[in-house]
Amino acid sequence: MLHNKTALVTGSTSGIGLGIAKALAARGANIVLNGFGDVDGARAAIEALGVQVMYHGADMSKPAEIEAMMHAAAERFGRVDILVNNAGIQHVAAVEDFPPERWDAILAINLSSAFHTTRLALPAMKAANWGRIINIASVHGLVASAHKAAYVAAKHGLVGLTKVVALETATTGVTCNAICPGWVLTPLVQKQVDDRAAQQGISVEQATRQLLGEKQPSMQFTTPEQLGELAVFLCSPAADNVRGAAWNMDGGWAAQ
């Protein structure tokens, strides 16, 4: 389905990004990996699916490095057909205690990086009259939680950016949509569960139920594989007229 297409997925050496990269690779897309995780493991997982893969270590808080990555991808594969803006970081603190440098870093990586990749990917996508931009926002792009000011602001901004790009490309073969996951069992979230269990002296199972019970009515984690399959759908002809959507996969979180 995606043979001869190239997908660039930021923050794709683990977790959600790797899950999406694997799902796209399984449909035949060549993959550009990016991130600070287990590069060799991620590369091997993609190569096992029989597609070409390259890695670029751009720091997504630095526009010049983002530009270098986009040029390298175009040089290797011709152009980026599918852009998945997934890179993200988190910091939790009350607004009055929030370190300004953490605010700046979260806005840079979770929001501004998507603007830079998008502006650089769009010309070739428009010239080919085909492209898919998928922004991995969050249920926090739709609703808020206390102590996550920068993350919630950035993810709301990412949903807004998604809508603008969708309108600007509405008469073309390029689409732009956001996926808004709730709790996903990534190494990052597993660490939160383990920390909670340790702090409260409860089992990991109890800590998991507690975490999910606070927000996610399904009491199930969304998986990177499920998010990957949604990304595949958004790249399919069936999604040609899905434009500017903020598609939550959150176990009912935002329905409350």
Automatic annotation (TrEMBL):
Keywords of the record: Oxidoreductase
GO terms for MF: 3-hydroxybutyrate dehydrogenase activity
Similarity comment text for this entry: Belongs to the short-chain dehydrogenases/reductases (SDR) family.
Residues annotated as domain Ketoreductase: 5-173
CDD domains: HBDH_SDR_c
Domain of life: Bacteria
The UniProt record lists the keyword Transferase: no
Pfam families associated with the record: adh_short (PF00106)
One GO BP: monocarboxylic acid metabolic process
EC number: 1.1.1.30
Protein name: 3-hydroxybutyrate dehydrogenase
